[in-house]
């Protein structure tokens, strides 16, 4: 993969859950150049290997695509106040979830480019926008799309949201039959377990029934229960992003063999910046193991922030000081005594 900055926390032993301490990349002082961040900061200038093979999804065209700016798009759509901007701010800008209360309504399409393990764009749509209005260039919106993420507020009346979702799917069905539609049943944090699963089932049922009444059987729609107040939103995004990574089967089989050869129970490749996991081995995934690995990254980044800065050497030469502090790739191992002989191991790998 071109331009990737990844780490592999591998978990051994049963799951443990730790509360999210919300890592904030905005907190990094320019002088505190820890190793994990260096790659991220350097990505703009990252070398792209020259390849005779035309670029695939991650750098170029999608199955529906026409040549354009070459970055797959994730479109965030849904009703007003359903939580689209909050999702994008929490996942990609490390905004603490409680601060999303102060986000203003989006009034025009907000386009952001992400440079990370792969380049992609996130387009945040205003809730009220009718993108099938003739004034809009529909092709321009949907041509290079990687996935359409439809956000439904599970705490609110959702029938209108379902209607709009179905209209959108049906409108796109003929011109863009391969578009992945990812439905985030969002804000589930405020719901009791029973109500949460009833709502989730109800939404799936209604979408499927309406589409099948309209003659569209087996649409490519997936559903997730999400909240910005826990790891579920990162997990859901991980699964969406993984669908866009053509190398996923290769990564999975490499991780399978890592697990088999090193007797590791579960291994993940993480994108440090977003804490999206790009791949994991094919053993069953549970959110607990994802959460603890993700929190572990926070801890390592926080510790690196304290100790990983460039210290001027005695003669004031910063370059020498870097040599002294030896900024190698991050590597870390902890034992979790409470649960017996379990280890959590993180190894940073470069792009
Ligand atoms: N309880 C809860 N509230 C959330 C969650 N996500 C977002 N919110 C709240 O929902 C409200 C609306 O969020 P926004 O992100 O502005 O919604 P939007 O879809 O971008 O809205 P528009 O810009 O008007 O289209 C904010 O007060 C958020 O704090 C969540 O997972 N749980």
Automatic annotation (TrEMBL):
Region described as Disordered: 48-74
Subcellular location: Endomembrane system
Top-level division of the source organism's lineage: Eukaryota
GO-annotated molecular function: GTP binding; GTPase activity
Biological source species: Coniosporium apollinis (strain CBS 100218)
One biological process term in Gene Ontology: negative regulation of autophagy
Protein name: GTP-binding protein
Function: GTPase involved in activation of the TORC1 signaling pathway, which promotes growth and represses autophagy in nutrient-rich conditions.
Subunit structure, as described in the record: Component of the GSE complex.
Gene3D superfamilies: 3.30.450.190, P-loop containing nucleotide triphosphate hydrolases (3.40.50.300)
Signal peptide (from-to): none
Pfam families, sorted: Gtr1_RagA
UniProt keywords, alphabetically: GTP-binding, Hydrolase, Membrane, Nucleotide-binding
Family per similarity comment: Belongs to the GTR/RAG GTP-binding protein family.
Primary location recorded for the protein, binned into one broad class: membrane
GO cellular component: endomembrane system; fungal-type vacuole membrane; Gtr1-Gtr2 GTPase complex; nucleus
Catalytic reaction(s) noted: GTP + H2O = GDP + phosphate + H(+)
């Amino acid at each position: 993969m071109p331009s990737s900055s990844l780490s592999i926390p591998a978990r051994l032993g049963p799951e443990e859950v730790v509360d999210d301490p919300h890592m904030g990349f905005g907190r990094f002082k320019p002088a505190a150049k820890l190793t994990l961040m260096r790659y991220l900061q350097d990505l703009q200038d990252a070398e792209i290997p020259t390849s005779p093979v035309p670029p695939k999804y991650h750098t170029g065209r999608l199955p529906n695509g026409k040549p354009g700016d070459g970055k797959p798009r994730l479109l965030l759509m849904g009703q007003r106040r359903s939580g689209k901007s909050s999702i994008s701010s929490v996942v990609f800008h490390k905004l603490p979830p409680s601060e999303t209360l102060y986000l203003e309504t989006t009034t025009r399409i907000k386009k952001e480019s992400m440079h990370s393990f792969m380049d992609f764009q996130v387009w945040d749509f205003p809730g009220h926008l009718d993108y099938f209005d003739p004034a809009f260039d529909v092709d321009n919106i949907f041509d290079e799309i990687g996935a359409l993420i439809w956000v439904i507020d599970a705490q609110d009346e959702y029938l209108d949201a379902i209607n709009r979702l179905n209209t959108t799917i049906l409108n796109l069905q003929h011109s863009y039959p391969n578009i992945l539609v990812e439905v985030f049943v969002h804000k589930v944090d405020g719901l009791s377990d029973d109500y949460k699963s009833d709502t989730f089932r109800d939404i799936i049922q209604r979408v499927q029934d309406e589409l099948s009444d309209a003659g569209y059987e087996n649409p490519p729609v997936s559903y997730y229960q999400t909240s910005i107040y826990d790891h579920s939103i990162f997990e859901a995004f991980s699964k969406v992003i993984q669908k866009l990574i053509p190398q996923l089967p290769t990564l999975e089989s490499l991780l399978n063999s890592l697990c088999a050869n090193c007797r590791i129970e579960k291994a993940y490749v993480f994108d440090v910046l977003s804490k999206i996991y790009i791949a994991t081995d094919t053993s069953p995934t549970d959110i607990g193991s994802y959460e603890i690995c993700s929190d572990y990254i926070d801890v390592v980044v926080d510790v690196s922030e304290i100790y990983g800065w460039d210290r001027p050497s005695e003669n004031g030469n910063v370059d020498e000081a870097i040599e002294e502090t030896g900024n190698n790739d991050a590597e870390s191992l902890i034992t979790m005594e409470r649960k017996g002989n379990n280890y959590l191991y993180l190894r940073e790998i470069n792009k």
